[in-house]
Specification:
single chain; mainly beta; 11-stranded mixed sheet; 9-stranded mixed sheet; 23 helices
């Protein structure tokens, strides 16, 4: 272990450079002006100071022998009268003949390319004092303009600058502010001038990361990272030192006296300070400050600046015995916690991941650490517009910092642990921030050696390893090194590759730059996806599922559109997954591999959260529940007619698997009753939307279900309240359009019994019910637009020994809406749109679905079980032995045992069809198959007789021809038969080979599902008395031989197959048909085989409701199986050394449906690639004892045209699954499956996701809120005549003309007019569908990308409205008609629920005034909001816009 003795001693070289490089920053106003002027790139300059003529200096001064002269150069801002940067001083020079030769060159770079930025040069005389110091006296100054708009003043080239009287401090006089030319105000010194050269220096761009802006520096200065030049001017042609990669690992921070006491004392001080400086709220409640995040900034600093932007990582509190990646003397490197450690409070802060740094070998280069806490304090009070808890503001505070120079002599840290003391208090630091300091004795604040007894300081401990050393280990590695590499290999992450061969990682995972969150981002409310709106958890208190083995589902549509505020850096989809250590030597000759940089994508990753599901608690009133129960829904009863027991969905359900398996009623009839739908008012749609709906969902491995149309019925008899609308009862719609009110609701049943389940599958089905939720999509059956999604918990369908159970769920139907930042409408914004605009995702509750689930136990059907049950089979395939050999004679099935009937039929068919050319001319009684032998001596004579008989019956020859001799006939017939003989012989050989192959073929039935590996072992026996090398060949790559011993052992343990395991059994060679295995004479071995398919059928029904009755949903759906793997027959041939088959294993694959764990629906413009990242939470394998060990996650996609891959960047951080989907034309929907595996050998997918990608035609619309804009769309006809009607997702903001049904002829073009009038500013996405109303099928879909600007406000008002008022408040606004003629105006508001007008339409004469009556709705909670009032003309063009700020108090 290397213990740094003293911070100041350790970093002497860096400290010297840091103290010399401190500079004054430029004015912030100037920086903002440069940015607004698009001066973002810094330019490099070279200033050569040649000779100064100083005839004005007195002779007595010039004659002094000890007087020298110096030039001092500083940057100055004329507009703000501000010196900034760092003053550069030349070498002292003597004057000769009134001339001073400096001949020095200085360099600098700046982005402040403004005329106000000038260079001030001052001549100073230095005379010695008796005490040894020097007396500096100003002798004049001059100004060098760098950027000017005046053509007479050149900005580049030789310059001759006149000196002025006085001191540069005179430039601070207020009269000189904003002065363009100083010539009239400054007095010039006659005969004194400076000759210099100013020019651009482009090569300085390569070293700008080593130098800060606005620093004047010479080429001989010490710049760590810059190679020295033999000429002495290293900046003339700069050369960089080589940067080497290093890895910072096992980092921990210890705070004194303990982490808990340190943070407790810190919070007490901050809370006390807040209470002393701020007034408490009106309720008198104290506002408590809490620690939101603990962060560490790590950067490489060369004394001048940071070489790269410091990385920001989040630290985690760790117990003293739980240093996840730190080594200890006891070899315990895993994160194991016993009972005492688990209960102990955290003692230190730790970083579980590694950090990649790039360093250069220079003694003044330092690694700088800064410990920073993010605090959260409440602000304001809960307002009526806030659906969450009290808002909180975040602020940052630096607590400790430290530096360490790794290349400071002696550098004996390699391979050891570094412990560094951290500093605090008011000291200059590279980050330029104030550092927290407690009231401690002065001696304890000063850095002291860590080895000194009795001292306790805050320390940071870490290891620094060279990545190059890890990539090229020594071939003579010791056993200990190999063991360490092996253990590190088990803990290291893996990324999927093309093959399954595991390649040890050459370096630790890349550590991207951490989240550099701004204060506005930290102060923003949580945008973490939470489907249950009743949850008030803070963003950092969100819970994630701890394991992947089937986790409960969430609303996938909501999750597929959510933004993750904590995501700052993820890698792009098109990254190369090959590690640096895998680069071939030939690739190294072509050049260095480009290093991937941390990249923040434009799209936000999709979040998969399994624990947050729509709340199932009842929020309806008693009157609503009474209305629901009086609708007459059918009861769920058991086999004896008794009503099923009702379970409360808000209470936990006990789950005993043994009790479920030993239930007498082995059959389960699962019932889903869709009862009612409660509408919730939503912006942009009417109060009676939706009117008709339908559902799509998938239960277990049954095929997807699409329901028929359902009508939302409202009761006219019951008086409804505005605040509590009654739920709308669902009623099915017949095909003729009539509503079936006799039987309300929709019931779908699924029967799961022994006839449906495979052997051993019941426990998996019970696990599915206990842990999963069923995703349901709710659609508008008129517009075919998605209303929202929800999820039903299935655990309440577990009977637990009861005859029948039922539960009533009331779940929220959620959807999401993208909203971008609003912008003010200006002339420059017209027709333009930002390429990258931040988007906020809002979760919208569209309604509540009332659904009843039930499970009816029923006895097992023995007849059905015998007919449909899948046969149980062993994983060992043993060929059937033949008891007798081939004895010659007829090739019938009696000589071969255990052959199927197809072989016998084929043999008889071979005998019958010997002469196919003449079969039609022979009577049925002419040939008797049983009387002939293919090997008989008179076989050819018999054929000739048959052909002669044919000639006699078909030929009509004269008498002379009939007297031809038999010998001539036989010769002619033999000549005709000659071409047939080779074909007959070939068919005979094929028949014999087929018979022989059937004799050595073993049949095996296999039931396969998507992504699941089916394991089997074939017993191969060598029947010969000589050894054989057998080649194994499979005619389908999905059925392969397991050649890896570890994989073989894994599947044997998984399937509990008790057969011998042999290592290195197979011999693999390139160019062979398959692996080879050696067999001794008469030896039998087990060949491991695996069948696994990742491809399936992607056919899906067209979007729209179903017209089939779904009362027997399971039976109807069962006849239309889809989305399963294809049925096939695969042969595995075992060939001997002579190439002839020794045995054949024929695997008959029967497909079975798979379980869908989660569903995603994504919307994307047509004909372009969809690039999406699905974020996975960090999972831990419960079977692994080491919690710090990373789970191997790999993914596969069922569509080969979709790129699907995953990579974990940092250990312990969430992992992303990247998708790249090719585009399709609108309104095509692409569906595919993604399989997520958590085991190394991908035996079975832990999760299967069903992903729908809806491709829509994109239309960009730029408009102003409150004003109507028109947009044209083109609808093209297809092959048939259609009755089409267009629908929009927000009818109150988008009107489609024509708005009724119209005829669309084939190949016709119909123009549609969109009238867009949005009420909220910002970027939004809306949808328009063209629907075939006869067949309820989608014709075309449009994705409207709105960029809505804020209007220019004419006036602003403020009004106060009392809270809990029943009558609201009324106000008036006077409006004057600016026109000379009478006009009619319309009044609109962006909050019609909060503000109503006395008259929505008024007419006034020219120049007259009108009082606009405003009626503000009452509020039940305090707060404030801004309401926009639009005064539009009859064409809905905005004339005036008023802003009314309403304060509810």
């Amino acid at each position: 272990m290397v213990k740094t003795e003293d911070v100041s001693t350790m970093a002497d070289g860096w400290t010297e450079v840091f103290e010399r490089s401190r500079l004054v920053p430029p004015p912030s106003q100037t920086v903002h002006l440069a940015v607004e002027s698009h001066f973002t790139q810094s330019l490099g300059f070279q200033l050569s100071l040649n000779r100064l003529t100083a005839a004005h200096l007195p002779q007595e001064v010039s004659g002094g022998e000890n007087v020298t002269y110096q030039l001092r150069v500083t940057l100055f801002d004329k507009n703000h009268l501000y010196f900034f940067g760092k003053t550069w001083k030349s070498q002292p020079q003597r004057m000769k003949n009134s001339k001073i030769s400096f001949n020095e060159v200085l360099y600098f770079h700046t982005s402040l390319q403004l005329p106000s930025t000038v260079v001030v040069l001052e001549l100073v005389s230095l005379s010695p004092r008796p005490d040894g110091s020097q007396h500096a006296l100003g002798r004049g100054f001059t100004l060098l303009e760098l950027f000017t708009n005046r053509p007479e003043v050149p900005t580049d080239g030789d310059r001759r600058l006149n000196l002025h009287h006085g001191s540069p401090r005179g430039l601070l006089h207020p009269l000189l502010k904003d002065t363009v030319d100083y010539g009239s105000l400054l007095k010039t010194i006659d005969g004194a001038h400076l000759e210099c050269v100013i020019k651009n220096h482009p090569v300085l761009a390569s070293v700008m990361h080593l130098l800060p802006e606005n620093v004047l520096i010479s080429g001989d200065e010490n710049i760590p990272g810059l190679a020295a030049s033999p000429t002495g001017d290293a900046l003339l042609r700069p050369q960089l030192l080589k940067m080497l990669p290093f890895t910072l690992s096992r980092l921990t921070i210890t705070l004194q006296p303990s982490l808990e006491k340190f943070e407790s004392q810190l919070l007490q001080l901050i809370n006390a300070d807040c209470q002393n400086t701020k007034q408490p709220g009106p309720e008198g409640a104290l506002k408590t400050v809490v620690i939101q995040e603990r962060r560490l900034h790590v950067g490489v600093h060369n004394g001048w600046c940071f070489l790269n932007k410091p990385q920001v990582v989040v630290l985690e509190p760790l117990a003293s015995g739980a240093r996840g990646r730190a080594d200890s003397a006891s070899k315990q490197s895993t994160l194991t916690k016993d009972s005492s450690t688990a209960s102990a409070p955290p003692q230190m802060l730790g970083l579980r991941s590694n950090l990649d740094l790039r360093l250069t070998n220079h003694p003044a280069l330092a690694i700088v650490f800064q410990l920073e806490f993010v605090f959260s304090a409440p602000i304001g009070r809960e307002t009526m517009l806030s659906a969450t808890s009290t808002s909180r503001a975040a602020f940052l505070q630096c607590l400790r910092w430290g530096i360490w120079c790794p290349f400071k002599e002696p550098a004996d840290w390699k391979g050891g642990e570094i412990r560094l003391a951290l500093q605090g208090g008011a000291k200059p630091n590279p980050y330029g921030v104030m550092v927290y300091s407690t009231e401690m004795p002065a001696k304890s604040q000063s850095p002291a050696p860590l080895s000194a007894p009795g001292t306790a300081q805050d320390t940071i401990t870490f290891r620094l390893l060279s990545s190059l050393e890890k990539k090229s280990p020594s071939p003579k590695a010791s056993l200990r090194t190999k063991q360490q590499d092996a253990s590190r290999q088990r803990r290291s992450p893996s990324s999927p590759s093309q093959g399954r061969k595991y390649v040890p990682p050459a370096s630790p995972p890349d550590s991207p730059q951490g989240p550099g969150l701004s204060l506005s981002q930290l102060a923003a409310t949580s945008r973490y996806p939470t489907i249950s709106h009743s949850s008030s958890a803070l963003p950092w208190q969100q819970s994630f599922p701890s394991l992947l083995h089937p986790s409960p589902l969430a609303s996938a549509h909501q999750l597929s559109h959510v933004a993750y505020s904590g995501v700052s850096n993820i890698a792009h989809l098109e990254m190369d997954l090959q590690r640096d250590g895998d680069v071939s030597p030939s690739a190294l000759d072509e050049g260095d591999q480009l290093q991937e940089l941390p990249f923040t994508p434009v799209h936000a990753p999709v979040i998969t959260l399994g624990m947050n599901v729509p709340s199932s608690c009842s929020v309806s009133s008693r009157s609503s529940m009474a209305h629901l129960y009086s609708a007459g829904f059918p009861d769920i009863v058991d086999c004896s007619g008794q009503v099923a027991e009702v379970l409360d969905p808000t209470e936990p359900v006990p789950f005993d698997p043994q009790r479920e398996e030993t239930d007498q009623l082995q059959g389960n009839l699962l019932v889903f009753q869709f009862l009612a739908f409660s509408r919730i008012p939503t912006a942009g749609v009417g109060p009676n939307w939706p009117d008709n709906i339908y559902f799509t969902f998938q239960f277990y491995r049954f095929p997807p279900v699409t329901s028929q149309q359902l009508k939302l019925l409202t009761s006219d008899k019951v008086q409804q309240k505005v605040g509590d609308p009654l739920p709308c009862v669902l009623a099915s719609i017949n095909k003729d359009g009539t509503v079936n009110t006799a039987s309300p609701g929709l019931q779908v049943q699924f029967r799961v019994d022994d006839g449906f389940l495979r052997p051993g599958e019941k426990r998996w089905f019970l696990r599915y019910l206990a842990l999963h939720t069923m995703h349901v999509d709710i659609w508008d059956s008129d517009s075919l637009l998605l209303i929202g999604s929800t999820a039903i918990e299935l655990k309440y369908m577990l009977r637990q020994g009861k005859s029948a159970v039922q539960a009533l769920h009331e779940v929220e139907v959620l959807t999401t809406d993208y909203v971008g930042e609003d912008t003010l409408l200006t002339s420059a914004d017209l027709g333009q749109r930002s390429a990258i605009s931040p988007m906020t995702v809002h979760t919208i509750v569209r309604g509540r679905l009332h659904i009843r689930t039930g499970n009816i136990g029923c006895p097992a059907d023995q007849s059905r079980r015998a007919a449909e049950a899948m046969q149980s089979h062993s994983h060992i395939i043993t060929p059937r032995e033949v008891t007798g050999g081939f004895r010659g004679g007829s090739l019938t099935s009696r000589n071969i045992l255990q052959l199927n009937a197809a072989n016998t039929a084929q043999a008889h068919r071979l005998e019958i069809d010997r002469v196919p050319s003449f079969r039609r001319g022979i009577r049925a009684d002419t040939v008797v198959p049983g009387e002939h032998s293919l090997n008989g001596p008179d076989d050819e004579r018999h054929k000739l007789n048959c052909m002669a008989a044919v000639r006699q019956r078909e030929g009509k020859e004269d008498a002379k021809a009939s007297k031809v001799t038999d010998r001539n006939k036989e010769a002619r017939l033999a000549k005709e038969l000659y071409p047939i003989k080779p074909t007959e012989e070939r068919n005979k050989a094929e028949g014999i080979a087929n018979m022989l192959s059937q004799a050595i073929t073993t049949q095996h039935l296999l039931y396969a599902s998507l992504g699941s590996a089916e394991y089997m072992e074939f017993v191969l026996k060598n029947p010969f008395n000589v050894p054989q090398t057998v080649t194994i060949h499979s005619d389908d790559p999905e059925l392969s031989v397991i050649t890896n011993t570890d994989e073989w052992g894994y599947f044997k343990a998984l399937t509990k197959t008790l057969t011998p395991l042999e290592e290195n059994m197979f011999h693999l060679e390139d160019g062979t048909a398959g692996p080879r295995v050696y067999l001794r004479p008469k030896e039998s071995i087990h060949i491991p085989l695996k069948y696994q398919s990742f491809l399936c059928d992607h056919t899906m029904s067209p979007q729209g409701p179903s017209f089939l009755p779904t009362g027997k949903g399971s039976q109807v759906a069962k006849k239309n199986l889809s989305n399963i793997v294809a049925a096939k027959t695969v042969k595995v041939t075992f060939k001997a050394e002579d190439g002839k088959p020794m045995a054949i294993c024929q695997v008959n694959v029967e497909p079975t449906p798979h379980v869908v764990d989660q569903t995603f629906r994504l919307y994307h413009p047509e004909l372009c690639f969809l690039k999406k990242a699905i974020r996975l939470p960090p999972w831990h394998d419960p079977t692994v004892g080491d919690p710090s060990a990373r789970m191997r996650i790999s993914v596969r996609c069922s569509d080969p045209n979709v790129i699907c891959q995953t990579r974990m960047l940092v250990p312990g951080e969430p992992q992303d699954v990247y998708l790249k989907v090719p585009g399709s034309p609108s309104p095509h929907i692409k569906m595919f499956f993604v399989m997520v595996f958590t085991d190394k050998w991908m035996a079975a997918p832990s999760q299967i996701w069903q992903i729908y990608v809806h491709f829509l035609e994109r239309v960009d619309v730029s408009c102003v809120s409150g004003q109507r804009s028109c947009q044209s769309l083109v609808l093209r006809g297809r092959q048939a005549v259609r009755k089409v009607k267009c629908f929009s997702s927000h009818p109150q903001e988008i009107e489609v003309d024509p708005d009724s049904v119209f005829i669309l002829p084939p190949a016709a073009v119909q123009e549609l007019q969109l009238k867009v009038q949005p009420w909220r500013a910002g970027s939004r996405f809306l949808y328009v569908n063209a629907v075939d109303v006869e067949h309820r099928r989608l014709v075309t879909s449009w994705l409207l990308c709105l960029n809505v600007h804020r209007p220019i406000l004419s006036k602003a008002f403020e009004v106060s409205v009392p809270v809990s008022g029943w009558r609201g408040n009324s106000r008036k606004i006077t409006y004057v008609n600016p026109y000379t003629s009478s006009r009619t105006f319309l009044l609109r508001s962006d909050h019609p629920d909060l503000l109503q007008f006395k008259e929505d339409k008024f007419q006034i004469g020219g120049g007259e005034s009108y009082s606009i009556g405003l009626r503000f709705a009452p509020s039940q909670s305090p707060g404030s909001t801004e309401i926009l009032v639009y005064v539009n003309n009859l064409e809905e063009k905005t004339e005036e816009t008023f802003c009314v700020k309403v304060n509810y108090s």
